[in-house]
Amino acid sequence: MYELLGFGSSLEYRRKNGKKRRPRVDDPSMRVTDTAFDGVRVLVYQPQGQEQDMDRAGLVFIHGGGWVMLSADVYDHVTWHIAKATGAVVVSVDYRLAPEYKFPLPFKDCLDATKYFLHHAREYGVDPTRVGVAGDSTGVNLAAAVALKLAQETSNNACPLKLQALVYPALQALDFQTTSHRTRETPWLDTLSHASSCSLYLTGNISWAKRFVSNTHISDCLKTSRFSDYVDRHLVDPSLPKMTPTDDAIIDLPEEIKDIVNPYFSPLMAEDSQLTGFPNTCILVCEFDVLRDDGIMFARRLEQVGVRVRLEHFQKGFHGVLNLIRKPLEFQVGKEMMKSLVSFLNENL
Predict the structure, then answer these.
(1) Which site among 14, 71, 82, 107 is 20 to 30 Å from 5 CA-CA?
(2) Catalytic residue at 137?
């Protein structure tokens, strides 16, 4: 209605309603600093009373929002809670948003901020060997891409991050007809909305969204290539026939969407040899979420190459529930998911 009445685009409306920051918890034991890491705006959460401790853990958190909306400010209650519950210094990255800044710029922001934190960790009382990365939804896409890039930049393919914690991940734009995409749409997220976000992040417009939804954006050659094997539905449901790639040729994609097989855009497109460099990983998925299968497939692929993985499936969960952990929108399953996330961080960071 907002768009039809001429007030602006639907994205503008969503941004206005997703921009409001909830009042920050008044807690003198937490110092929150609004600053910049290598030109990228970040919010730094530092639990107080441990200033002299130079061996604290650190966590880079990357928010979701389809790459096109929300912010570090909107996630304030999430990152504050993580810092409070773990005692870690949490850096929440406020990366630039699509479509104004399309791929790879948001990814570059997250990478630059993470590198800066790793190089300046001691200034925040953080042991640089105890730094992890986390995120939710499309924030996971960026977090996993950062972990992959950092691993690729080391001589032994070992990621300098200690762990990654991934909440209902968005990890690929190859197959929008997975079981969860076809059967698990909710008012919080449907396949067309996600496809539109992918198109905006990749191309700066939504022209490819409907073709993404119907899988008509991929050729027969691509459907039988090794890339389709990376999103094999057999990984989610072993009763389904296993994909057997028949064509390993270079894939000819339209220039505008050629990056759908770029692992920094779609981490599930990473080769097995690249995945071996990933750190200890926690993946939390929700039953009522079109992205459920992305998370499960990623967990299975990481397990196959020897990465330690904790996969937790929240049967009553739905996309976005991690944000709903305090009144007036408070869900028990959101609290359970946050508890599981904090537990993993405390045990492994």
Answers:
(1) 71
(2) yes
**Inside any domain, residue 328:** yes
Is 234 tagged catalytic? no
Q: Which pLDDT belongs to residue 240? A: 85
Pick the catalytic residue from 137, 196, 199, 266: 137
Q: Residues 300, 287: contact at Cβ < 8 Å? A: no
Catalytic residue, from 109, 232, 289, 294: name it: 289
Which of the 8 DSSP states describes residue 278? -
| 88 within domain boundaries | yes
Range of the domain at 308: 10-173+267-348
Instruction: Name all contacts of 175-178 with Cβ < 8 Å and 24+ positions apart.
Output: 175/215, 175/228, 175/231, 175/233, 176/212, 176/213, 176/214, 176/215, 177/214, 177/215, 178/231, 178/233, 178/236, 178/293, 178/294
For residue 156, tell me if it sits in a domain: yes
Q: How many domains does the chain have?
A: 1
List pLDDT tens digits, range 42-63: 999 999 875 556 789 999 999 9
The whole-number pLDDT of residue 22 equals 53
- 36, 94 in Cβ contact below 8 A? no
pLDDT in tens, 173-196: 999 999 999 999 998 899 999 999
Neighbours of 317 (CB within 10 A): 24
Cis omega (within 30 of 0) on the bond before 104?
yes
Question: Is 312 contained in some domain?
Answer: yes
Is 319 marked active-site? yes
What is the per-residue DSSP string for 193-223? HHHHHHHHHHHSSSTTHHHHHTTTTS-HHHH
Flag the least confident range among 88-92, 117-121, 237-241, 330-334. Answer: 237-241
CATH code at position 324:
3.40.50.1820
Please, what's the b/e burial string for 269-298 (b: 16 or more CB within 10 A of its CB; e: otherwise)? bbeeebbbbbbbbbbbbbebbbbbbbbbbb
